[in-house]
């Protein structure tokens, strides 16, 4: 091979390596399992992704819920995107009855459970401005209670603000989230419950407040390792503050031009509010939440 040819190939190799090392997460990639970034999808971009969440362990008996969400997102402009998703679930619970929440052991195979539509708008771009800022809004309708598997109609409006900051030329990424979800819930009656078992069929209003933050570091081309912290608290019509929980855990993310995937483990570190009778670990909220969640997201970009 001529010297000039070898020199040309060397320049190409160096250029490709440099591009790989300088690669940052493209718009639309979720580096975290729960908190979201502020970068918008480009105009006419399409993303199809599958989210699978395992909710496991209430400290007694068996509790294993799996939630599936298939989402389609489309960039209307370089700042505005719309989305629609279908939700499914399976549930296996035994050896645990919780007054007012888990009325019976339940085993549900894979079945549809809800649907959601949403939009997001980017006010400031983290790639072009000092800090990114976006908002999200979604309307969610479920017909199965995600906790008990019983029939329950819920209509929720979820509003969120997202901030994002690129640091160290994109190697380090910080995000922060604020969110509020307001829900109207109406349970279906259940026959043959014990006389002293509470199962309210009066419509309820719920308000959930959420705060989260995370840091993500690119440790190799296309690879990111992340850590996130999430706080959630919920208020109900008659009870007031019903629960609160802190969660924190790591994520591993891989992203290419055509697809990306994120795997997250999020254990509950502390929690409070209502507890079920005989609950052993009183430092956690284990009525509506579990000791840990594992989430996998896989997405394809078009």
In short:
By secondary structure, this protein is mainly β.
Fold and architecture overview:
- This protein is mainly beta and 302 residues long.
- The protein contains one helix and twelve strands, in the order H-E-E-E-E-E-E-E-E-E-E-E-E.
- It has one helix spanning 3-21; strands at 46-56, 62-75, 80-94, 106-124, 132-144, 151-167, 172-187, 204-220, 223-236, 240-255, 259-273, 292-301.
- A twelve-stranded antiparallel barrel has the order 1-2-3-4-5-6-7-8-9-10-11-12.
- The longest helix has 19 residues, at 3-21.
- The two termini are 39 Å apart.
- Mean pLDDT is 90; it is low at 1-23.
- This is DUF6662 family protein.
- It comes from Shewanella vaxholmensis.
Write the layout of secondary structure elements.
Blueprint: H1 3-21, E1 46-56, E2 62-75, E3 80-94, E4 106-124, E5 132-144, E6 151-167, E7 172-187, E8 204-220, E9 223-236, E10 240-255, E11 259-273, E12 292-301
Antiparallel strand pairs: 1-2, 1-12, 2-3, 3-4, 4-5, 5-6, 6-7, 7-8, 8-9, 9-10, 10-11, 11-12
Protein name: DUF6662 family protein
Organism: Shewanella vaxholmensis
Pfam families: DUF6662
């Amino acid at each position: 091979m001529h010297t000039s040819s070898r020199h040309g190939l060397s320049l190409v190799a160096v250029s490709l390596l440099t591009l790989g090392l300088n690669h940052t997460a493209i718009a639309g990639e979720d580096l975290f399992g729960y908190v979201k970034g502020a970068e918008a999808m480009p105009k006419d971009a399409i993303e199809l992704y599958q989210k699978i969440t395992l909710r496991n362990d209430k400290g007694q008996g068996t509790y294993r819920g799996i939630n599936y969400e298939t989402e389609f997102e489309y960039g209307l402009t370089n700042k505005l995107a719309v989305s629609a998703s279908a939700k499914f679930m399976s549930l296996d619970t035994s050896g645990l009855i919780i007054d007012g929440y888990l009325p019976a052991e339940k085993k549900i195979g894979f079945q549809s459970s809800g649907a959601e539509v949403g939009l997001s708008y980017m006010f400031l771009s983290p790639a072009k401005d000092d800090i990114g800022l976006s908002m999200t809004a979604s309307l969610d309708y479920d017909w199965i209670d995600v906790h008990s598997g019983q029939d329950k109609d819920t209509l929720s409006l979820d509003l969120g603000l997202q901030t994002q900051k690129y640091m160290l030329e994109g190697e380090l990424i910080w995000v922060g989230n604020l969110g509020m979800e307001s829900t109207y819930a109406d349970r279906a009656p259940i026959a043959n419950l014990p006389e002293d078992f509470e199962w309210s069929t009066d419509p309820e209003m719920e308000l959930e407040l959420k705060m989260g933050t995370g840091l993500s570091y690119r440790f190799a081309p296309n690879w990111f390792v992340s850590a996130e912290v999430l706080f959630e608290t919920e208020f109900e019509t008659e009870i007031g503050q019903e629960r609160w929980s802190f969660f924190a855990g790591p994520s591993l993310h891989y992203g290419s031009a055509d697809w990306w995937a994120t795997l997250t483990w999020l254990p509950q570190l502390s929690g409070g509010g209502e507890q079920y009778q005989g609950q052993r670990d009183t430092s956690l909220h284990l009525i509506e939440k579990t000791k840990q969640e594992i989430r996998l997201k896989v997405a394809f970009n078009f």
